[in-house]
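Case study 2.
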Amino acid sequence: MLSDCVAFLNGPAFTLGALSSSRAELLGAFLGVWMVLLNLRVNPAAWPLAIASSLLFLLVFWDARLYGDALLQILFVIVAFWGWWQWLRGKQADGSALVVRHLGVRGRAAALLAFAVLWPAIGLLLARQTDTDVPWWDAFPTAGSVVAQVLLARKYVENWPGWLAVNLVAIGLFAYKGLWLTVGLYAVFALLAAVGWRAWAQRAAMSA
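Prediction:
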């Protein structure tokens, strides 16, 4: 039953010349855009959409041999449940409810250090343990997405520049793999990340 479901989702949704998409890619793209739009409004309903979209893109990326991005979707699902809880019940250090805010200097340094450790670690793992032909390229958005997702769950403005960098690198990666619908999706994500950065910075300024 599960294998039949996977086969159906991996089946073609449409083909227009060189452009084609599986059902999983098309549905995952729709849910992904909806999710980001809800994130812009700091709406907790974004998190269940993130879970569904991540499970669909797990199928897409695994089929394309982008194992770093595929395994990242599993982490996304786990973090999405945590982030959902954080947005509903999470607290700041002073015990107050989470609000949109900026990282301090130490927080930014910690985020950059986490990325600097994760990128080579993931790249080395992919290079040695999988048959991917783009281990280091694949590892960059994988590592960056982990950091950005944690920052998003804790409502830090800096998640958005993180997503912007991830999405711009991912556009080139997915174009190389011929995932043209996903290229378009991540171009939209990059634009929305820029919009989200501005919107959340304004929210942080009002709540400061």
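Residues 23-91+104-207 form one domain.
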